């Protein structure tokens, strides 16, 4: 028997890591922690950070005359204003490429659509703060079970 030929590995510059990281935000503290974690990951990997807010569609609320679109639009505007402020604070210190996107639907399907359309390499979400998710399952658990991308759940 002959010994297998030794393969020489050559050092490779750059990264094989994620190029697009999707993070779901909804204004909760858990989502802000997820955004902070995803920002650091995107900065270190030189990846694009796609910050996604999924505007809920509540047909029952709109049937009762509730201004659902106005409220969710205000939330999206508040989130992007917060992101712009934070982006200005780190300008010149860290280089971070980011985009803000809104999608409509339930959080799980909205994040799946976002990740598919933006060709995400990774998805980051905050852990659920709702006790009701023990029954129907949290968005994070459903994303992990979908098994399409690496999913990081930030507590």
UniProtKB/TrEMBL annotation:
Protein name according to UniProt: Universal stress protein
A Pfam cross-reference name: Usp
Domain of life: Bacteria
Ranges for domain UspA: 19-155
InterPro entries xref list: Rossmann-like_a/b/a_fold (IPR014729), Universal_stress_UspA (IPR006015), UspA (IPR006016)
Originating species: Streptomyces montanisoli
Membrane-spanning residues: none
Signal peptide from the UniProt entry: none
Record-stated family: Belongs to the universal stress protein A family.
């Amino acid at each position: 028997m002959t010994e297998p030929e030794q393969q020489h590995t050559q050092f490779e510059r750059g990264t094989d890591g994620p190029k697009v990281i999707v993070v779901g935000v909804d204004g909760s503290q858990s989502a802000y922690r997820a955004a902070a974690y995803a920002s650091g990951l995107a900065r270190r990997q030189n990846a694009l950070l796609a910050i996604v807010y999924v505007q809920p569609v509540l047909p029952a609320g709109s049937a009762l005359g509730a201004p659902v679109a106005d409220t969710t639009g205000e939330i999206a505007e508040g989130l992007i204003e917060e992101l712009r402020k934070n982006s200005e604070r780190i300008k010149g210190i860290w280089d971070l490429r980011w985009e803000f996107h809104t999608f409509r639907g339930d959080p799980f399907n909205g994040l799946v659509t976002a990740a598919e359309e933006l060709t995400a390499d990774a998805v980051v979400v905050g852990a659920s703060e709702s006790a009701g998710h023990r029954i129907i399952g949290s968005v994070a658990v459903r994303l992990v079970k979908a098994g399409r991308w690496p999913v990081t759940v930030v507590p």
